[in-house]
Design a protein that fits this description.
single chain, PH-domain like, 2 domains, 5-stranded antiparallel sheet, 3-stranded antiparallel sheet, 8 strands
């Protein structure tokens, strides 16, 4: 094992993997179209899982509205059968459409979270922006163009769950890269700078 490899193992001693993990170190299955032959993926990041709480709670709330509404209507003992709009077949169709909309909205939120990733390789940092049925954008900056990295956590939830934003200053055309709402932002910042110092001097 070379000195460079030993130093890399010191920087990234942990091995984390998982399909829906927010932090994956040395992912074996991650490849991308513009990856160079000897380029290694060191870290893949997603926004912290806590960022999904809003749409998960919203989906649960909207899923409970129909049964709650039907329950209160039954308590009121209204003669709904005489109203064309409240015929049983119409109610079934309305419920199906309602839950389809709730599921579709939640699923799109999940896809947005899952496919919006940040990648740190042996050569660059990359930002994959994905919006279902809208756009897919990839931005990147070479490690040797990174000047500095800072982290910021504002608010109760980011402080409680330990996530925040990492701002990467570069000397390239795009002056700043933003890794938003990533877990352990101080750790991410340190690893970016450590990997830059290691890889710019001599590739593994």
């Amino acid at each position: 094992m070379t000195h460079k490899q030993e130093r890399l193992k010191e920087i990234l001693p942990e091995q984390r993997d998982g399909t829906i993990s927010s932090v994956i170190i040395m992912p074996d299955k991650l490849e991308f179209e513009t990856q160079n032959p000897n380029e290694r993926v060191f870290i893949m990041l997603r926004a912290h899982l806590a960022n999904n709480l809003s749409w998960i709670i919203t989906g649960i709330v909207f899923s409970t509205i129909p049964p709650v509404a039907l329950y209160f209507l039954s308590l009121m003992q209204l003669n709904l059968d005489s109203t064309p709009f409240f015929r049983e077949s119409y109610i079934v169709v309305a419920l199906m459409l309602w839950y389809l909309l709730v599921f579709t909205s939640s699923f799109m939120k999940f896809l947005t979270w899952y496919f919006n990733i940040y990648v740190i390789t042996s050569e660059r940092v990359m930002d994959f922006d994905f919006n279902p049925f809208a756009y897919h954008k990839i931005s990147e900056a070479s490690l040797d163009n990174i000047v500095d990295a800072t982290q910021e956590s504002i608010g109760f939830l980011p402080m409680f769950f330990d996530y925040g934003d990492v701002y990467i200053q570069t000397a390239g055309e795009r002056r700043e890269f933003d890794f938003l709402s990533v877990p352990r932002p101080s750790w991410v910042r340190d690893k970016i700078m450590d990997l830059r110092d290691l890889m710019v001097r001599q590739p593994v």
